[in-house]
Amino acid sequence: WAMHAPYVQAINRLKAERGAVVLAHNYMTPEIYHGIADVVGDSLQLAIAATRVDAPVIVQCGVHFMAETSKILNPGKTVLMPDMAAGCSLAEAITPEGIAVMRARYPGAPVVSYVNTTAAVKAASDICCTSANAAQIVRALPGDTVIMTPDKYLAQNVARQVPEKRVVWWDGACIVHERFTAQDLRDFRAFQPDTTIIAHPECPPDVVAEADYTGSTSGIIDFVARERPAKALLVTECSMASNIADAHPAVEFVGPCNMCPYMKMITLEKVLWSLHSMTTPVEVAAELVAPARAAVERMIALSA
Ligand code: 13P
Ligand code: SF4
C-alpha cells in the first residue's frame, strides 16, 4: 500500500478539484477498489449508480462498455475512460448487423443483449440484461422464444433456469470465464473437498454445474458474506478474491483464477493522468443515445 499512497492521495485531491466521482467495477485492482472508488459494484449496480451521479465528471474504472452505459444514462456528464483500449471480448463479439441476422432467423422474438455490448448493439436490442438479472428479464418477456446476445454461456445458463422459454443465442464468450473447465473443478474438489466453489454465469454450463453457487460479481460478494465458507474458490476474475479478502479474514480464498486483460489496463497511473488531462471523454453518437438508453432503462425497471 505504501507505494500506492501518493497516487491515491493525488487522485483523491484531483477528484475534489474536478468534481469527479469514480465508479469502479468489482474486478478493479484493490488499490483502485479500496483507494479511490466512490462506488463499487457489478455492472447493474454501476449502471444504476450512473443514473444518480450529480457531480459533473464520472471516471469509469472498468471497461469501455461500462463508460458508454454511464454516458447513455447520464449524457450531460463528462465520462472519462482512463484507457480507451480497455474493451471486452463479449462487446467485440456482436454488431448491430448480427442483431439483424438473429431477428431474421427468429422473427418476432425479443432481443435481450447483455450490457457487455456497444451502444450501437444496445440501440438495436429490445432490452438489456446483466448477469444479476438475466433470468428475471428472460422470464418476464412475452412469447416462447427469446434471443440472447452475445454470451452463449450466459444464455445456456439462463436457459436452464427458465425452462419454459426457448432461448437462442449468439456465439460470443468471455475470454476470462471460458477458460475454466469442469474437469479443473472436479480435480480441485478431489484435492480439497471442503472448498465451496462459487462461479460467474459467464462460465460454461458444465462449469456452473460443478459450482455450489453461481451469480454476478455482487451476488458472489453477498454469498460469501452470508455463508462465510471456510474455504472459497471464486471461479472468476482474480481481483474479486483480493478485493473482499480483508472483509472476510475467516474465509480462506483458494485455487486458480483468471485475469481480465482489459480490466487490468486501468491503473492508478492512468486514472491520475485521466483526471489531470480530462481524457478521454466517452462520446456516444446522438442518434444512438435514446434507443440504447431505452433498452437499459427497460432492464432497470424490470429488475427493480
Ligand atoms: P458483473 O455484472 O457480474 O459484474 O459482470 C461483469 C463482467 O464483465 C464479468 O465478466
Ligand atoms: Fe469482458 Fe470477460 Fe473481461 Fe468481463 S471479464 S470485461 S466479460 S472480457
From TrEMBL:
[4Fe-4S] cluster binds at residues 88, 174, 260. Iminosuccinate binds at residues 25, 43, 114-116, 131, 200-202, 217. The keyword Iron-sulfur applies. Its EC number is 2.5.1.72. It is found in: Cytoplasm. It catalyses: iminosuccinate + dihydroxyacetone phosphate = quinolinate + phosphate + 2 H2O + H(+). One of its GO terms (biological process) is 'de novo' NAD+ biosynthetic process from L-aspartate. InterPro entries: NadA, NadA_sf, Quinolinate_synth_type2. Pathway: Cofactor biosynthesis; NAD(+) biosynthesis; quinolinate from iminoaspartate: step 1/1. Its main location: cytoplasm. Keywords: 4Fe-4S, Cytoplasm, Iron, Iron-sulfur, Metal-binding, Pyridine nucleotide biosynthesis, Transferase. Its cofactor is [4Fe-4S] cluster. GO terms for molecular function: 4 iron, 4 sulfur cluster binding; metal ion binding; quinolinate synthetase A activity. It comes from the Bacteria. Catalyzes the condensation of iminoaspartate with dihydroxyacetone phosphate to form quinolinate. Belongs to the quinolinate synthase family. Type 2 subfamily. This is Quinolinate synthase. It comes from Gemmobacter caeni. The gene is nadA.
